[in-house]
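2 proteins. here.
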Amino acid sequence: MSTLLLITSAPSSIHAWHALGLAQALQAKNQDFRVFFYQDGVTIANNLQWLPDDQRNLLKEWQKLKVRLPVCVSAALARGITDLENAKRHQIPAHNLAKGFELVGLGELADAVESCDRLLQF
C-alpha cells in the first residue's frame, strides 16, 4: 500500500511533527510512501530558519530520511522560499531552499494523488 503524506502545516505546528513521525515509521517498516510540501508546509524547506540548540529541527529531521522532498514552487515563492534557478528567473537576490528539497509544480501532486492508495494531510 502506498501512502502520500501531504504536509500543509507550518513547522511550528504539531501536525508537521506528526507527519515526520509517520514518515519515519513507514520508512522503518519499509513501506512505500511519498511526501509533498504544500501551503504553509513549504516553510519547512526554508534554510534560513533559526532554532535554539535545545530544540529539534524539523528541516534537518526530514533531510535525515533521505527521501525525495518535493515542494510546491508557487506556494514556496509566495512565502519567500526559492532555489537558485527560480531566484534568477524572478530576479530575487538570494536563494534559501534547503538541501535535499526540490521545487516542483502541482502536476507532481496530481500524479502522486492518482498513484497512491491513501492520502494523509497534516
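next one coming up
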Amino acid sequence: MGMHAVGAFSGFAVRDVEQARTFYSDTLGLTVADDRGGLRLDLPGDAETAPSSVFVYGKPDHEPAVFTILNFVATDIDTAVDELAAAGVSTLRYEGFEQDDRGIARDPRGPAIAWFTDPSGNILAVVQPD
C-alpha cells in the first residue's frame, strides 16, 4: 500500500461517549473498553471475515449519517428484534420497504433486516443472511 499502512480500523462519532458506552454495553451487550478518549466496541464474529472492533469517539455537534453505519449479523432476526424491543429499542420504518409489525423487512432478493438507532441517531441494523 502506498501509504505504508500496517492496519486499518473503522470509527464513528457519537454526541455523548458515556451515553454510547451504556447503550452499546448494557443494551446491545457488546464488550466496550476505553480507547484514546473514546470507546472500542468489540464486535462479534470471526476476525478474518469482519472487523474485530470499531472506534467510537465523541463529537458534541455530531450529525448522524443517513445510512446504516454498523450491521449486526443474527442467526434468528425475530429473536434479535424481540430482544432489542425488550431492551427498549424501537425499529425504524422506511418508505418503500415492506416491513412486518416488528419492523423486519423480508425482501426475497436480500437478507431479512431491521434498522434501529443508537442514542446519537446513528443507524444500525440487525441482519439475517439468506
